[in-house]
Amino acid sequence: MTKQYTIRTETHDDYAAIDAINFAAFDDDPDMPKMVQDLRVQFTLLPTQSLVAVGPDGTLIGHVMMSYAQVDGEKELIDVMVLSPLAVLPDHQNQGVGTALLSYAIKVADDLGAPLLFLEGHHRYYGERGFENAMELGFRRPSLRIPPKAFQVAKLSRYTPDMTGTLVYKDVHWRHGVGLYR
Ligand SMILES: CC(C)(COP(=O)(O)OP(=O)(O)OC[C@H]1O[C@@H](n2cnc3c(N)ncnc32)[C@H](O)[C@@H]1OP(=O)(O)O)[C@@H](O)C(=O)NCCC(=O)NCCS
């Protein structure tokens, strides 16, 4: 099937549409748009850390965001990135939009110099799209409430095998339950 969408970084004009995508994709949960707004402001995210998928008529159909966290390693704190949320409008799901957003996000995180991109999600979906089980690579979950299989990571160019330790979320992540895989 011909690809019917493009991926680009967000602009200010996209904010309302991004809120609508996250609201609809997460079963009308009002906390998801709020989380996106707080992540954007409290981390002073670069526009490239928030990507949108644009449909053929110019409307936004998908969104992904990446913020910062740290791995508390044996020798030092390591700056890493966390991918959350990823959302596609229900009518546009299962058409490769989520996969395209993920692959673009991995490239952006790599270009920004992060060695690791963590997320919480379904192991089969993400496992087939560049992520692997983080615990098997020596990382500890930020919360014991995250199912071990859901704790996943993509290794990027700057990753080295001596990078192990505990993923530590920032305050804004906890406030919005990024640490609670649903
Ligand atoms: C999860 C989500 C981002 C996937 O995006 P998408 O564009 O629909 O997915 P793609 O078209 O790239 O991939 C389709 C595949 O994903 C699978 N899939 C869709 N939603 C899934 C989910 N919640 N868990 C596991 N697999 C899922 C489909 O079964 C399909 O599998 P296949 O490739 O074996 O046929 C999208 O369905 C969504 O927004 N869901 C609601 C919000 C959400 O759960 N976000 C993720 C939080 S971790």
Q: How many strands appear in the DSSP assignment? A: 9
Radius of gyration: 16 Å
Strand/helix succession? EHHEEEHEHEEEEH
- Global morphology: globular
Class from secondary-structure proportions: alpha+beta
CATH topology: Aminopeptidase
Query: What ligands are attached or bound here?
Result: coenzyme A
The CATH architecture assignment turns out to be 3-Layer(aba) Sandwich
| Mean pLDDT over all positions | 94
Query: What CATH first level would be assigned?
Result: Alpha Beta
| Biggest sheet descriptor | 9 strands, mixed
Beta percentage is 25-35%
CATH superfamily: Gcn5-related N-acetyltransferase (GNAT)
User: Distance between the terminal alpha carbons, to the nearest Å?
Assistant: 31 Å
Q: Please, how many helices?
A: 5
Poorly predicted sequence stretches spanning 5 or more consecutive residues: none
The helicity comes to 25-40%
Instruction: Give the count of structural domains.
Output: 1
Please describe what this structure looks like:
- This protein is of the alpha+beta class and 182 residues long.
- It has a single domain, classed as Aminopeptidase (3-Layer(aba) Sandwich), CATH 3.40.630.
- Helices cover 26% and strands 29% of the residues.
- The chain contains five helices and nine strands; from the N terminus they run E-H-H-E-E-E-H-E-H-E-E-E-E-H.
- The protein has helices at 15-25, 31-42, 97-111, 123-127, 171-175; strands at 6-9, 50-54, 60-73, 77-88, 116-120, 132-133, 139-140, 151-155, 165-168.
- Strands 1, 2, 3, 4, 5, 6, 7, 8 and 9 form a nine-stranded mixed beta sheet that branches.
- Strand 3 and strand 4 form a beta hairpin.
- The chain binds coenzyme A.
- Coenzyme A binds at residues 25-26, 86-88, 93-99, 121-122, 125.
